[in-house]
Amino acid sequence: MNNYETILILNPVLSDEQVKESMDKFKKLLKSVKAECLFDELWGLKKMKYSIQNRKTGFYMLFQFKSSPESISDLEIELKRDERIMRFLTIKLDKHAMAYAERRRSNLKSKEKVK
After folding, report:
1. How crowded is the C-beta side of 73, counted as CA atoms within 13 Å?
2. What is the architecture of the domain spanning 2-114?
3. CA–CA separation, 31 vs 37, rounded Å?
4. By percentage, how much of the chain surpasses pLDDT 90?
5. pLDDT in tens, 12-54
6. How far apart are CA 102 and CA 107, in angstroms?
7. What local confidence, expressed as pLDDT, does residue 114 receive?
8. Distance in angstroms between the alpha carbons of the first and the last residue of the chain
9. Fewer beta carbons within 10 Å, N or C terminal of the chain?
10. Distance separating alpha carbons of residues 86 and 14, to the nearest angstrom
11. H/E element holding 15?
């Protein structure tokens, strides 16, 4: 099992409910390919430097998960089929990237406690 990270850019015309449904759908998709979701985060609506499909904004989502390399191709095929997803990028994380991700998560948790 390797560690991976996927960033999704969703269509900006989606409602908040549809964005949450997309997050849940991706989590279910991870379970269906026998992957373990470690962390997920919705970054919200962001302006993009370059337009994608004639859109200048998009909803950004981050997912970190453990999976076998064989299931990544199945996962990406399903992402390509979803018309709500404008772009996605899946990368394999090495030990240094995982250490950084752990620090980032702990900083997010400490900021949430302060609020």
Report:
1. 2
2. 2-Layer Sandwich (3.30)
3. 8
4. 47
5. 999 989 999 989 999 998 899 888 998 888 999 999 999 988 9
6. 9
7. 60
8. 36
9. C
10. 12
11. none
Classify residue 43 by its DSSP letter: E
Domain boundaries, the chain: 2-114
DSSP letter at 53 equals T
The CA-based dihedral angle spanning residues 28, 32, 37, 43, taken in that order and rounded to the nearest 10 degrees: -40
Reduce the DSSP state of residue 115 to 3 states and report it: coil
Q: Which token pair is 59? A: 């909803």
Above 90 in pLDDT, residue 8? yes
Q: What is the largest CA-CA distance in the chain?
A: 41
The mean pLDDT value of the chain amounts to 88
Q: Structure tokens of 7?
A: 């960033």
Give the span between the Cα atoms of 92 and 88, in whole angstroms: 14
Cβ 62 vs Cβ 41: under 8 Å: yes
